[in-house]
Automatic annotation (TrEMBL):
<feature type="domain" description="ACT">
    <location>
        <begin position="4"/>
        <end position="77"/>
    </location>
</feature>
<dbReference type="InterPro" id="IPR002912">
    <property type="entry name" value="ACT_dom"/>
</dbReference>
<dbReference type="Pfam" id="PF01842">
    <property type="entry name" value="ACT"/>
</dbReference>
<protein>
    <recommendedName>
        <fullName>ACT domain-containing protein</fullName>
    </recommendedName>
</protein>
<dbReference type="InterPro" id="IPR045865">
    <property type="entry name" value="ACT-like_dom_sf"/>
</dbReference>
Amino acid sequence: MSFLLRLKLPDRPGALGAVATALGTVGADILSVDVVERSPGHATDDFVVELPPDRLADSLVSAAATVEGVHVESIRPYAGQLDAHRELELLDSLGHGSASLQTLATGVARVFRAGWALVLAAPVSGQSAVLASGGAAPEIESLPVPWWPPAPSRPLDPDASWAPPDWGRLGTELAVTCLGEAALLVGRPTLRWVPSELVRLQYLAAIAASVTPLEP
């Protein structure tokens, strides 16, 4: 089974290798590593690892924690596709005849290893219609948006009164960005949004808005 493991590592030579060695001791096969954020003295990395059927996810947490200075931020099952060029492929598809909001929403969910993405229309009387959805998106036709406008790109509180109650209970981490006159709302379980990801989301949405008609 595959897992997405987010670790905060000390930014020093050998730290990544030490984590890889520690995960290897429990039989984990590292499928990909993405650096999602750097700060003074630390780096936040996403590891997609495959674990043998006879091992529990807790063994990954325990193994990573044996490396001095490593903090496990989150772990969750991962069934997404592995692709180092996710954003480029999405933009390429949007620029070559596949420019639809459905393509965009599905692609964004995959790029950011999210559970789902929604494209929301500009609100009317405080309510935004759902123009398109991707991933395992909630089956809703509209959503109250007291947080509008969607700029700047930012996380949103899933426990706020406007959000469906299930989002908070499931530990959904929300992020929103501007998509032309519309908005792109992305939700994923337990994996917090770091500033560098919000910048990526903003840039991706800005480029997509220039080539994608705002219609379902």
